[in-house]
Each structure stands twice: as structure tokens, then as C-alpha cells.
Design brief:
The chain is 31% helix and 25% strand. It is of the alpha/beta class. Helix 1 runs parallel beside helix 8. The longest helix is centred in the N-terminal third of the chain and has 26 residues. Bound molecules: flavin-adenine dinucleotide and nicotinamide-adenine-dinucleotide.
């Protein structure tokens, strides 16, 4: 007999597993179908984020940051090390342990909340029916009054640099290197290129980043992008903008990458490893039977409205499989919203305040509008910026690079965007998100007391700087 559920979630990444847990909390009979399995054939939960994305990349960023500090900063603190080395196998083992722990945690949360788990590949048939094919090829069916598609995304490949999964890899392969490559090529100066490029650069690789576009971090505020680019170049990342990769070839243990520089001149660069990080595409192929009646847009995303509803009643899609930034927290919030809508509650996601964070060191983070976006929208803009070099806690910690910038409406005083590059940029921007969620004015931030000495004082001073009254800034207006 076909088992019946109130909610079936397809995919156990951050969008899907969060949706399933919230639906079960709301008293709905919920199942999650996940196709990912470990080597032993057990279901693997957490999707891209936990297994080959956010968590393993942050584990390697943290390990490599510690190594880099030991090599370059400890001496200044008076800490002497006899001999410094990096054991890549041990670093990878720690990363794998972190991943296992987090993925196992979701299984425990499913059990605690009464979410059923089915291992297999799901396909939406329509009429509230879902077909599931298990690893042995056995096909079964379940019935669900509501279906939530949360199938995520996969890395984009480009014809000039085909992967061989050894010398030329995508982000997943770049989390598994068994030694530090001498010469590392990265195609794409986006989030993955900068984060994983930084990991291996800190451990000693010579890293060349080839970016097709002429401007660096096009989605960021221009001032923040300019300062970040300067910092990354100083760290040794050889970022080459306006470079069009035309072909590549593997010769022995080397990869030759041919590209056109901004002047149109053909250049050949030789690498020991190449990471292709040129974006991700939604995983929606073969997901819907024609009779399911679901539309994909021209890039393969499931077409949804602002409440993640498809045109088919009871069929929703969330996370990387739909429009908007491909970020774990955006997908998770969509998952919660959909569970609540199914339970008959009012729910929405504030797409204007999705925080973006690049976990390099220093971090680059922002939320809300950039100065350029606000001006383009016809807002009369005022800004204030404050450098970490004038913040006591940052100087004491040797973390004085970067700045915080506030973008505000000069007519209403409302904070429209908070942007930062600095060692605690993510946490400071998150404070800005809370403020903006409460529709804070610049004056609200200026009147708020910030603990001393904290990095947060930079946010306070940036708010004061909007009206040219920052206390600790010799040059009253500008920070960088
Ligand atoms: P996914 O996490 O991709 O999960 C989808 C799941 O659905 C998978 O488990 C898949 O196996 C399953 N599935 C697919 N099709 C089927 C099917 N037919 N049947 C059953 N199961 C199916 N985001 C951040 O916010 N912060 C970060 O720091 C960050 N770092 C990242 C680092 C890297 C290297 C990468 C690659 C990504 C990173 N991201 C980060 C992005 C983040 O991982 C994604 O935005 C997030 O995982 C999307 O969640 P999701 O649930 O929509 O999809
Ligand atoms: P991205 O979109 O951030 O960057 C891709 C870069 O590659 C862009 O700058 C693009 O101009 C460039 N590019 C595209 N085609 C190219 C070509 N042929 N040659 C040279 N450059 C080319 O994509 P990504 O870095 O692959 O990351 C994928 C997704 O994963 C992103 O949407 C991101 O949101 C998410 N992610 C998030 C985090 C985080 O939140 N910290 C970390 C990693 C990944």
C-alpha cells in the first residue's frame, strides 16, 4: 500500500532538512527523501552545505588560518616555534570528522522530531505522487498532500577546462587534495575561488586566480571590493581580471591553461592543480514527470513566487533549486517559511536582508543595499565608514586591516546597508542585519552603547561617521 504523508521534502540539504524539521514540529506527518549515500550505503544528510560546501570549506579555512598565523604572526607575539609543518592528511581527517559529526546531528534531529527518512532518488509524478528509486534500482511510490523540492545545485563546468577529477577539479575535489600544490590555478574569482584559493595559498601554494570579468567582486559595494582586492593581492593571491580562458591541456602531471588577457594577448600558465569555480547550477534535471505540470525557467530553476509556491497547488521549491542567492541560510529560511505556510500560518522571507559573507581572512561581508544600488534606486544617500586600524581591540589583536561602512538614506536617516571587510566582518554585518530588520536609523546605532574594547566599536563609529562625528578618526569623513 502507498504510504501517505502530509509533507514530503525532496533533498536533505539545509533548505530541505530545516523544512522537514519545522513541518514535523508543526504536527505534520513528514518524510524526507535523500539520494546521497556514504560508501557503506547509508543515507548522508546535510546536502552540499554539510558535506562538500560550507562546513568542510570552513574547517580547512580555520586549519590553514592557524598554520598561517603560526608561520607569520606568532613571532610578533613573542611565541617561538622550533619547527612548523603541515600534515595535510591530519588536516583532512579533522575536516572529515567535523562533517560526520554535523551530518550525524541531522539524523538525530530527524529522529527527535519524528521526521521519516527514505533513501533514494525522488521524482515528482503529479497528483501528489512521488516515485522513489533506491540504490538497488527498486522503484516505490509515496503519496504526499504537499511536496517541497529542495534538490540544491551542482558546480558548473566549462568546455575549455574539462575536469579530470585529479589535476583539474571543482570545489569538491579542492577539499580533498592530498598535498599542497606548488602552483594552483583557480578559474573564477567568486566566493569559492577566493575561499579555497586562500586555503591553499596559506599553506604555501602559488595561487593564480583567472577571472573573466573586469571588476573584482561585482556584487559587493565598490569601496569594500577595492579595499578587499588590495588586501588579497598583498596576501599573495595573483588575481588576474578580464581574462578569458580559451583552452587547457594535461601534460604528464601538469595542466596548461591558455587564456586571453584584457589586451587580447594569448597567455599560457602552467599549474600542478586547477580548481574550476565559475558558479553553480540548479539540480532539477529529470526531477519532474511531464504530467507534474511544473515549470523550470531558462536556467533550470524551478519557477516559484515570493512564497516559494510553484503554479501547482501543494508543490513548493526552496533553496538553490530556486531563484535568489545560493546560500544555506537563504534556503533554510525558505524551508521554514514553506513549512509554516503548509501548516496554515502566515510566513515570509525578507529577501532584502540576506547576509553575504566571504570567509577569507579578513572576511568580506555585507547585507542590504550597496552605495551604488541605493543611488541607482534614486535614494539620496549618505555614508559613513570607519577603519579597524583605529579600533583598540583590532589593533591589540593585530587585525587592523579593513573597515565597516554604513549606507543610509539622507532624507529618513534609515540604515539601508552594512558592509565590512575585516577579521570579524561577518559578525558585525549580522549586527547590522538585526538593526535593519528593526528598521534602525543611523541615529539609533549612534545612540547604542557598544562594549569596549570590541570590534563592534567600528560599527558604532561608522554610524557616527555618517554625520561626520566619529570620535577616533583623524580624517573626519573617509576611512579607505
Ligand atoms: P543542497 O545543499 O545542494 O542539498 C540538496 C540535496 O538534495 C542533496 O543532498 C542532494 O543529494 C539531494 N537531492 C538532489 N536531487 C535529489 C532527488 N531527485 N532525490 C533525492 N534527493 C535529491 N553557503 C553559505 O551560506 N555559507 C557558506 O559558507 C557556503 N560555503 C560553501 C562552500 C562551498 C565549497 C560550496 C560548494 C557551497 C557553499 N555554500 C555556502 C552554498 C551552500 O552549500 C548552498 O547554498 C546550500 O547547500 C544549498 O542548500 P539546498 O538545501 O538548497 O541544497
Ligand atoms: P560565484 O558566482 O561566486 O563566482 C564565480 C566567478 O567565476 C564569477 O566571478 C564569474 O565572473 C567567474 N567566471 C564565470 N565563468 C568564468 C570563466 N569562464 N572564466 C573565468 N571566470 C569565470 O560562484 P562560485 O564561487 O562557484 O560559488 C557558487 C555558489 O556557491 C555561489 O553562488 C555562492 O553563493 C555559494 N558559495 C557561498 C559561500 C559563502 O557564502 N561563503 C562560499 C562558497 C560558495
Amino acid at each position: 500500500m502507498t504510504e501517505k504523508f502530509d509533507v514530503a521534502v525532496i533533498g536533505a540539504g539545509p533548505a530541505g532538512y530545516v523544512c522537514a524539521i519545522r513541518a514535523a514540529q508543526l504536527g505534520l506527518k513528514t518524510v524526507c527523501v535523500e539520494k546521497w549515500q556514504d560508501a557503506a550505503g547509508k543515507p548522508t544528510l546535510g546536502g552540499t552545505c554539510l558535506n562538500v560546501g560550507c562546513i568542510p570549506s570552513k574547517a580547512l579555512l580555520d586549519s590553514s588560518h592557524r598554520f598561517h598565523q603560526a608561520a607569520h604572526q606568532f613571532a610578533e607575539h613573542g611565541i617561538a616555534l622550533e619547527k612548523l609543518g603541515i600534515d595535510v592528511a591530519a588536516m583532512m581527517k579533522r575536516k572529515d570528522k567535523v562533517v560526520q559529526k554535523m551530518s550525524g546531528g541531522i539524523k538525530a534531529l530527524f529522529a527527535a522530531n519524528g521526521v521519516s527518512l527514505i533513501s533514494g532518488v525522488a521524482r515528482v509524478l503529479g497528483n501528489e505522487r512521488i516515485e522513489i528509486t533506491d540504490a538497488a534500482g527498486k522503484v516505490s511510490e509515496i503519496h504526499a498532500s504537499n511536496t517541497v523540492v529542495a534538490t540544491g545545485s551542482h558546480p558548473v563546468e566549462i568546455p575549455p577546462v574539462p575536469l579530470d577529477d585529479n589535476l583539474i577539479v571543482n570545489s569538491t575535489g579542492a577539499l580533498e587534495f592530498d598535498k599542497v600544490p606548488g602552483r594552483l590555478g583557480v578559474i573564477g574569482a567568486g566566493v569559492i575561488g577566493l575561499e579555497l584559493g586562500s586555503v591553499w595559498a596559506r599553506l604555501g601554494s602559488q595561487v593564480v586566480v583567472l577571472e573573466a570579468l573586469d571588476n573584482f567582486l561585482g556584487m559587493a559595494d565598490r569601496q569594500i571590493a577595492r579595499v578587499s582586492e588590495k588586501i588579497f593581492r598583498k596576501q599573495g593571491l595573483d588575481i588576474r581580471l578580464g581574462c578569458r580562458v580559451v583552452s587547457s591541456g594535461i601534460e604528464g602531471q601538469e595542466v596548461k591553461v591558455h587564456y586571453q588577457d584584457p589586451q587580447g594577448k594569448e597567455v599560457v600558465e602552467v599549474f600542478d592543480k586547477v580548481i574550476v569555480a565559475v558558479g553553480r547550477a540548479p539540480s532539477t534535471a529529470n526531477l519532474f514527470a511531464p504530467e507534474a505540470g511544473v515549470e523550470l525557467d531558462n536556467r533550470g530553476f524551478v519557477a516559484v513566487d515570493d512564497r516559494c509556491r510553484t503554479a501547482v497547488p501543494g508543490l513548493f521549491a526552496v533553496g538553490d533549486a530556486v531563484r535568489g542567492p545560493m546560500l544555506a541560510h537563504k534556503g533554510a529560511e525558505e524551508g521554514v517559511m514553506v513549512a509554516e505556510l503548509i501548516a496554515g500560518k502566515a510566513a515570509e522571507v525578507n529577501y532584502d536582508l540576506v547576509p553575504s559573507i566571504i570567509y577569507t581572512h579578513p572576511e568580506v561581508a555585507w547585507a542590504g543595499q550597496t552605495e551604488e544600488q541605493a543611488k541607482e534606486a534614486g535614494v539620496s544617500v549618505k555614508t559613513g565608514a570607519f577603519p579597524f586600524s583605529a579600533v583598540g581591540r583590532a589593533v591589540a589583536a593585530n587585525e587592523s586591516e579593513g573597515l565597516v561602512k554604513i549606507v543610509a538614506d539622507s532624507d529618513t536617516d534609515r540604515v539601508l546597508g552594512v558592509h565590512a571587510v575585516g577579521s570579524c566582518a561577518a559578525e558585525l554585518v549580522q549586527q547590522g542585519v538585526v538593526a535593519m530588520e528593526f528598521s534602525a536609523s543611523v541615529e539609533d546605532l549612534a545612540l547604542t552603547m557598544f562594549g569596549h574594547p570590541t570590534f563592534g566599536e567600528a560599527l558604532h563609529e561608522a554610524a557616527l561617521a555618517v554625520d561626520e562625528r566619529a570620535i577616533h578618526m583623524p580624517n573626519r569623513k573617509s576611512a579607505g
